[in-house]
Write a structure and sequence with these properties.
Structural class: alpha/beta
Radius of gyration: 29 Å
Strand order of the largest sheet: 3-2-6-7-1-8
Number of helices: 38
Shape: globular
Helix content: 40-55%
Oligomer: single chain
Largest sheet: 6 strands, parallel
């Protein structure tokens, strides 16, 4: 392989694949290029099988970028890159859990809670924590007035214990109540077949530490390990990494201690600073110190900032320098400020942006990014509103503005206007002034809109009468939502052409709102509204669920592929900007200091649980974190770095604050004439060209049925409804799944009817607990009989069982194809795929044909993965025992894959306008009302 595009240290990093290696990669030093070349070298030059290589990245986007660039780099396209063990540490842990799920308390189909749903899970189960002996004394004096705030408080500590791998016994030693509460929480997760984000790692580590045969297998398989962003790993992640690597593993860690900014999530800089000591003289240390991103002025400014603090032994020495013609004496760091006037500060920023656009110094607003410590700050939100008022769009998804967007207020207002007794149950309830006024304003807004939108007025009138007089109880909150979006106001939103996270913000927000409703239905365990529960459910939705969400704040949609969307400037937190780069970076938050406010809520707990063996002196961690954070922000700039503030030296806390003042005062003003705008050649923002993941059911089959439905469900994330039929199907399917796993472990001959009974009812009771949907005795017996009859009928087939729930994937030029196979049979020289269906054989040929195409799609991927002929596919309908064989002739498979490729190219081209409407076929689609209006 030719490495002419690498410098000497990069080349050394690529070729050093044996033993422990520490790569210190400064900002813009070509770290990703080096990792791409290193992986490509291992695969193509050293012929290391991809399944022997583990690579972890900080984000899934970074993982896809690596796969995309490695695919483009290697010449041998037969290498299946999806055999690489690659992803974030959390996703790698999930792979371990899925592969060895029988070593856990989980079973297939487990749920992973996101941050919001974790809060609600704790809140819904709060009576369990109230029963603990020391509950009252623990919360006394903590100024947490309701169960929601107490649930948030417990969530913070539960996550900390999970991330740090703290044992329950040690927690109890320090605080009995928290230890018992965490123990109770873990049991609740187990009983509901649930994982939260923090317990993903804890579960994976338990598998490794408690199952020697698993550890031996994984160590033999994963011979080469690479960990990116090592400076932001925590203690439990380090344990997982070193447990997998063993004592003499080929372990390469990459990172920059100067950019370690995630202490608040449990990360410790000790991991990277002491890595070499773990291996003494065996560890090779390679420093990547040439900055290809920024000119000398920015590089030197960053260096001066980081070296303005005394670090002692808590930092690696570095000599970062600019590359090639970027090594010059041109001014590239300036300040843009005013004195004592926020309005003038905002106006000056607007005029600066406008100047760049009018003079064609920038082609698109997305070449400018504003970075702050927090974008929820009132000053930042005001600046965003000011710029948008002047016609400059702002992309700021984490500004806590979701509930203030017009489309969200309109939806809420419509719900408030159609349900009975809202005045009494919501507007006059003891909600608190802010949220009550918010609801009233939403209601009033829709009342005014009724004058302009006739369909809105008539629909609300009809619905209100229905709920007051004729309600039959066959609707859900989500089904009502899909009626609402068929109204003219929302039709105008969805009829916008093109797909862009800024231009289509309203559509994405409505998708988020549909998820809020779906989550509410699941958490409240009420799917169908009835006469009996209507007022109670609506009251709980507005008085609790939505109120708490608004208090906590909801982020708007973020497209991981498009961090700098076209047509808008970006307002991001510095943490959001990690790993990114922008032509122009404006740094705000210059009023900040390293001094944190005293925590009156849990200062006593912080002291009790502080890490007594902390690597850095505890009294210095705040200033270390502060300097690293702004170093990370400063170093995002490619061409121009601007420090901006409303200067005020008369305040108790002057602006800029003392940490910035010396360097800030040395900077020329942007209008001083020292910055040469004529020679300011700004880079464009490169369009994302990452390979996306496509499945048959979720992408190709869905798009084939209706491109418009694909856009709504997959692009705008509109949720679909669940129901009793789906629960029944899940129960039968998951029972058969678990039965197959038992067969692989014990053999067909060792399974008895009682085993099936236990599996079936364990899964049923967990599904019942998590969904609150019960099945009748007749239905339960029917499902159990189907599984028993299947087992008796198919013992010969089950003796050929080779893989269960086999995850398969392959990287193609146009994307990553993925799927999960219910069952794979091994006939010795060939494989067969069996796909189970719990419903009836479709009466319409097009649905049956879609099932067949799905298996043909899978056969293509499986053959590439296993490098073994796949000769047969079977659609197995459990209800009747009917089997339909699927043709796997080469010509048919090739035609199917070519059609799939065309669909993927259409998806990539954002071609979603076609609606395939048929009144009869579409009657159960959530967008039936929407499309009927447009026919």
């Amino acid at each position: 392989m030719n490495f002419d595009n690498l410098n000497e240290n990069q080349r050394e990093a690529v070729l050093s694949i044996k033993g422990p290696v520490l790569i210190i990669a400064g900002p813009g030093s070509g770290k990703t290029r080096t990792l791409v070349e290193r992986i490509s070298y291992m695969l193509e030059e050293k012929r290391i099988p991809p399944e022997k290589i583990l690579v972890t990245t900080f984000t899934e986007k970074a993982a896809r970028e690596l796969i995309t660039r490695v695919y483009n780099r290697i010449e041998d396209k037969s290498i299946n890159l999806n055999e690489l063990y690659i992803g974030t540490i959390h996703s790698v842990c999930l792979k371990i859990i899925d592969e060895f799920i029988d070593k856990t308390d989980l079973y297939q189909g487990y749920e992973i809670l996101d941050d919001i749903n974790q809060k609600f899970f704790i809140y819904k189960k709060f009576k369990e924590f109230k029963e603990l002996e020391e509950y009252d004394s623990f919360f006394q004096g903590r100024f947490l007035p309701n169960n929601w705030k107490k649930a948030k408080f417990l969530q913070k500590w539960f996550n900390r214990f999970s991330e740090e791998g703290e044992s329950i016994e040690k927690i109890k030693e320090k605080n009995q109540f928290l230890g018992e509460a965490y123990e109770k929480y873990i049991k609740l997760l187990k009983n509901n077949n649930i994982l939260d984000f923090g317990n993903i790692q804890r579960t994976a580590l338990n598998i490794l530490e408690n199952n020697s045969e698993v550890l031996v297998k994984l160590r033999e398989q994963l011979s080469y390990i690479m960990i990116d962003e090592y400076q932001d790993t925590n203690e439990i992640q380090e344990k997982i990494i070193f447990t997998l690597a063993g004592e003499n593993g080929n372990l390469c860690v990459v990172g920059d201690d100067d950019q370690g900014i995630y202490r608040f999530r449990g990360a410790t800089i000790r991991n990277i600073l002491q890595f070499k000591k773990r291996y003494s003289d065996q560890c090779k240390v390679i420093k990547l110190s040439i900055n290809y991103r920024s000119p000398s002025h920015i590089v030197n400014f960053c260096k001066e900032w980081i070296e303005s603090l005394k670090w002692d032994e808590f930092r690696y020495e570095k000599e970062i320098e600019a590359f090639g013609d970027k090594k010059n004496d041109k001014i590239a760091v300036v300040k843009l400020s005013v004195k004592n006037s926020e309005i003038q500060w905002m106006d000056r920023i607007y005029k600066f942006i406008n100047y760049l656009k009018n003079k064609e110094i920038i082609e698109d607003y997305n070449q400018i990014a504003f970075l702050f410590r927090s974008v929820r700050n009132k000053k930042v939100i005001n600046l965003g509103h000011y710029l948008e008022g002047k016609g400059i769009k702002v992309y700021s998804p984490r500004s806590n503005l979701f509930f203030y967007r017009e489309e969200v207020r309109v939806v809420l207002g419509i719900y408030l206007r159609i349900f009975p007794n809202v005045e009494e149950n919501i507007f006059n309830s003891s909600l608190g002034i802010d949220i009550r006024d918010y609801y009233i304003s939403a209601n009033n807004k829709v009342e005014k809109m009724e004058k302009s939108y006739k369909d809105l007025k008539s629909w609300i009138k009809k619905k209100k009468k229905y709920y007051e007089e004729d309600f039959k109880g066959k609707e859900s909150l989500l089904s009502i939502f899909y009626e609402i979006i068929s109204l003219e106001y929302f039709q105008n939103i969805f009829n916008k052409t093109g797909i862009n996270v800024v231009e289509n913000r309203e559509s994405y927000n409505l998708g988020i709102f549909s998820k809020i409703l779906k989550d509410f239905e699941i958490l409240s365990k009420v799917e169908i509204l009835t006469k009996e529960n209507l007022e109670r459910v609506i009251g709980y939705l507005f008085n609790n669920h939505l109120k708490f969400l608004k208090e906590s704040g909801i982020d708007e949609y973020e497209d991981s592929k498009e961090q700098s969307p076209k047509g808008a400037i970006s307002f991001l937190t510095i943490h959001q900007s990690k790993g990114l780069e922008f032509p122009v970076v404006v740094i705000g938050s210059l009023e900040g200091t390293p001094i944190k406010k005293e925590n009156i809520l849990d200062g006593d707990l912080e002291k009790a649980f502080e890490n007594k063996t902390s690597y850095e002196p505890l009294y210095r961690t705040d200033e270390f974190d502060f300097w690293r954070l702004f170093y990370t922000g400063f170093s995002r700039a490619k061409n121009l770095l601007i420090l901006s503030c409303n200067e005020n030296e008369k305040l108790k806390n002057p602006v800029p604050s003392l940490p910035f003042k010396r360097l800030y005062d040395q900077l020329p003003d942007i209008a001083s004439g020292k910055l040469d705008f004529n020679s300011l050649n700004l880079d464009k923002v490169e369009e994302s060209n990452l390979k996306e993941v496509y499945t048959y059911t979720g992408d190709i089959g869905l798009y084939r049925r209706c491109p418009f439905k694909y856009k709504m469900n997959k692009i705008f994330k509109m949720e679909t409804s669940s129901g009793i039929g789906l629960i029944y199907g899940r129960l039968v399917h998951e029972t058969i799944e678990k039965l197959h796993i038992e067969i692989l472990e014990k053999g067909v001959e060792n399974i008895i009817e009682e085993d099936i009974f236990k599996i079936y009812y364990k899964i049923y009771f967990t599904l019942k607990e998590s969904t609150n949907i019960s099945l009748g005795k007749t239905q339960l017996n029917k499902g159990l009989n189907q599984v028993n009859e299947y087992f008796i009928r198919e013992k010969n087939m089950l003796n050929l069982l080779k893989y269960v729930e086999e995850k398969i994937s392959t990287v193609e030029a146009y994307g990553i194809l993925e799927g999960t196979l219910d069952m794979v049979l091994d006939n010795g020289d060939s494989l067969e795929i069996v796909d189970f269906k719990t419903g009836d054989v479709p009466s319409e040929e097009e649905y049956l044909e879609s099932y067949k195409k799905q298996l043909q799609f899978y056969s293509y991927i499986l053959e590439k993965k296993k490098k073994k002929s796949v000769t047969k596919g079977i659609l197995y309908f459990i209800k009747t025992g009917e089997k339909i064989e699927v043709d796997f002739h080469k010509e048919i498979i090739e035609k199917n894959i070519e059609e799939s490729k065309e669909i993927i190219l259409n998806i990539n081209s954002k071609n979603f306008e076609e609606k395939i409407y048929n009144k009869e076929k579409c009657k159960n689609c959530e967008f039936f009302h929407y499309c009927t209006v447009n026919v």
